[in-house]
């Protein structure tokens, strides 16, 4: 589980991070004092769970949640608060808060709340997987053999921990376009590829530049999440199959190695991770074709 902590109190942030690390509840990918740049940081790091203080100087927690959700963030929220006000609590739940942690921070309460939230997130992910799996069942053609393109792609992205990310739908659309073109040896320039996908999805020509930029950002964020996910696996046990298989094939292994060391040393990344989008998409395409062929 990937956490981002937002609190203008540095001591609170430190306590929360310590609890998460010591209880092996996941990794803290970033933290902020609640300044306006927080919105961009959260989108860039794409955490699963945001711990956010209710009262902060520049923007209160409820408003920040609303803005993040309006901008497309799909992670979950746990709110930190000293305030016991029914109206404010109700407003927070309406904004999308899953649970509350009361201040001053209590270690046992934090651990219990986070474990409940993790269970809920994992349940939601399981339901999505079941729903996607059921969508492949009941094909009217009894002669159909093997797995569909969508099933193969989502399976690969699931292995890398990003099947639920916004960019996964873009990647699936890209794989469909490449499959139609049979681009076995190479893929077109990224801008051209994104435009092809956008046109296929019915985006108007006047909206192409905007959609291409948004698609690029979604894909980069998803690949960044994949790097963190695999690095987290490798930091625990580098013999885990997903780490062994995907890390050296899809990514610059030096980036994975650096991120592993940061996780092991409980360090916050001091620079954005290097993302090689074209290499990732080409490897995803090759892996998709290979897995489809293996099931024929």
UniProtKB/TrEMBL annotation:
Record field: transmembrane: none
Keyword Phosphoprotein: yes
Pfam families for this protein: Response_reg, YcbB
Keyword set, alphabetical order: Phosphoprotein
GO biological process: phosphorelay signal transduction system
SMART domains linked to this entry: REC (SM00448)
Residues bearing the modification 4-aspartylphosphate: 53
SUPFAM superfamilies per record: CheY-like
All copies of domain Response regulatory, residue ranges: 2-118
Xref: Gene3D superfamilies: 3.40.50.2300
UniProt-recorded name of the protein: Response regulator
Organism (species): Sporosarcina thermotolerans
